[in-house]
Specification:
With about 150 residues, the chain is an alpha/beta fold. It has one domain: Rossmann fold, CATH 3.40.50.10610. The chain is built from four helices and seven strands. The protein has helices at about 40-50, 60-70, 80-90, 135-150; strands at about 5, 20-25, 25, 60, 95-105, 105-115, 120-130. α1 (about 40-50) packs across α4. The radius of gyration is 15 Å and the shape is globular. About 35% of the residues are buried. Mean pLDDT is about 85; it is low at about 5-15.
């Protein structure tokens, strides 16, 4: 399980940036699609798009992994959203992006949701589609879903 976070100091204008942790999208596919481990790449792409927005700045995923190690938290303990939100509070994230993808037939569907860490309330959801055999399409779907889920 790989996670990432976006956080940063305020901009020169004094606006505070919202800190966001991004979790690796879960693979819900029931058929083999030949892209095992792609969730890490999708998470990286989502973080990249978020950090290109004025309101966010990425923090290395290794920092979150380090926090998990220091707190002696294993990936099995982070299987549910509530545990992930607790870790988000510990690392100072204000929001988290969770997601899942599924390959069915010749299509890929990527779903993301942005959640307020303090309340657990879903702030926004986004879905993007791609052709299952088109890896560039998968990355484009991650781009679009990230932009959509982070839009006001």
């Amino acid at each position: 399980m790989v996670i990432a976070a976006c956080a940063g100091p305020g901009s020169p204008m004094g606006d505070l940036k919202i800190s966001v942790a991004v979790w690796e999208p879960q693979d819900l596919s029931t058929i083999a699609h030949g892209q095992e481990g792609i969730g890490d790449f999708l998470a990286g792409r989502i973080v990249q798009r978020i950090t290109e927005m004025q309101s966010y700045q990425a923090v290395e995923r290794q920092e979150l992994l380090k926090a998990m190690e220091e707190l002696n938290i294993g990936s099995s303990q982070l299987a549910d959203a509530q545990a992930q939100l607790r870790l988000g509070r510990i690392i100072g994230a204000q929001q988290m992006v969770f997601g899942a993808f599924q390959v069915a037939g010749s299509s890929l569907r990527l779903d993301l949701r942005r959640v307020d860490v303090a309340s657990g309330k879903i702030l926004k959801t986004a879905t993007a589609l791609a052709k299952a055999e088109d890896i560039d399409g998968w990355l484009s779907a991650a781009d679009q879903a990230a932009l959509d889920v982070m839009a006001p």
